[in-house]
Amino acid sequence: MIFKASIIKAENHSVWRRAVQMLSTLHEDIKLTITSSELIVWSMNSADTSMSQIRFKRNFFDEYEFQPENTVFGEDGLQQVEDRALVVHKLYSFKTNGKHLSVLFRKPENDNIKSLELAIHNGAACPESLANKLQITIHTENLMLKEYVPHIIPIKYDPIVINLRYKKRFLEVYGSSSETQEEQLDPRLLEIFRKFDRELSESYFNNDIVSNTKRSRDLVPEDEINYLCCNIQLLKNFIDSCNTGATEEVKLEVSLSKLCLTAFTRGVYSKNNDILRNAMRASNTVGTSDLEHYCLFTTTGDDDQRRPPSKVVSFGMKDFRNFINTVAFWRNDQEIHMWFCRPGDPVFLELDKDDLCLELVQVTSSNEDLVPSGNKIKTQTTSPLKEIVHIKLGSPRKSPLKGLTPSKTPSSNETTSPLKPKTLFVKEKSFDADQQRWKNPVRGKRLPDSQEEIPKSLHHAPNEPAFKAQRTQTTIEWGQSVPESANDAAATALDQRDLLKQEKRKFLQNIRNEREKDVEKDEPTQGVDEFGPTQVDKPKGLFD
């Protein structure tokens, strides 16, 4: 056996079952990584916009054994990582079907689970039938034994260390300045700083995260990090009070005085502004005094505005609801931590207990207005840190087309386009008259804009013949052209029916001329063909 773990406590059975069910809602496959100190179970949706990870620590299990050196089968899942202290740790990772696991770990009816065992053989004495298989054994109180052997696929573990990056930035922005803070900070917040610092130093994946030197430079906009800590029941009440089944997104807005949580759904409209789906919005607002801790990255210039500065992010509702319902299993006073940066950056939620840690990472919407660029401003970290630091706020994005942006006010020297559009559709009042006339809409001369409503009988365009050009209001033209000859000028006076008659006469005249030529060629043999049964039938024309 390279891995063996067992769970006996009834509470841990419920936690394990809820965790697997939540992860199976993100993706069909669930990935597991075994280490000597914890079992990491995680899943990510197909769009890579939401990820949840649950770390079951060694003391969560009643029995926990991991011997990676005995691995013979499935060596693709075996790997080694090196932490900042140059200590090498061995891991074994694999993935399996999460939908199947959620069904297998479901609580049986009229019975309770007495013990649950997980095992992976893959050793030298492993039979071929158990190679790359996860052995699940369940003992119930009714003396029933259930055994399942789902297939596993060994993989390499690629850790997504957003949790470590956010905690490192949080300590650099707020924790480093707490050493020189004039006013006394909350001892509980100082304990959180020490706890996160200890977690960063003990993590297996801190090689590229933790730095040995403290921050000595000024803050820049990329250093923005906001932190909230509140009771689970506050978020659970928001989920229960809002119609989360009919809403798709959550907007979190926090200021120095209040926290506003909004569940909303955007309206959908057709091209004709017909309502395809109604918009919906429900909000819960609480004061910041109800929060355990909060740290906001704000600027000193925001204090002069009438509206107090606030931080706003929005993210998906479905995964957030599933995560809150899972962590709400503990009804005692449990605190949930939340970190977020600017709109578009991921939001990170964490519930840390003694024997497990639940984490959720979601990508936020980036359609919020960013801080204007190009100014030197002062920033201050508010509640509980209020030290003022100077930063130079650079532009987050420079457009190469900034110098080519046209002015909004029209210039007097600007050349107007000769292709000014005309009305494409006929007005109702002139529709009947146009049906009677049916004039040519292509060859008319366009009137100036100021003379569009003048009757055609009173308007004579300059440099044009004395005849009237009758046309409908629907015109499609490309400027004024000079007539090349008198024939072109005369052709503009003809209406469409006269043109058709003229073309028909020309066509029939050409046919008549061709027939006369054929008759002249056949004159020597015409006498033979005129009489007798071999007479040639010649069709007559319409005007013969």
From TrEMBL:
GO cellular component, one term: checkpoint clamp complex
Compositionally skewed regions (Polar residues) per UniProt: 406-418
Ranges of biased composition (kind: Basic and acidic residues): 425-437, 510-524
Record region (Disordered): 396-450, 510-544
One Gene Ontology term from the biological process aspect of the record: cellular response to ionizing radiation
Entries under Gene3D superfamilies matching the protein: 3.70.10.10
InterPro entries tied to this protein: Ddc1, DNA_clamp_sf, Rad9/Ddc1
This protein's name: KLTH0H04576p
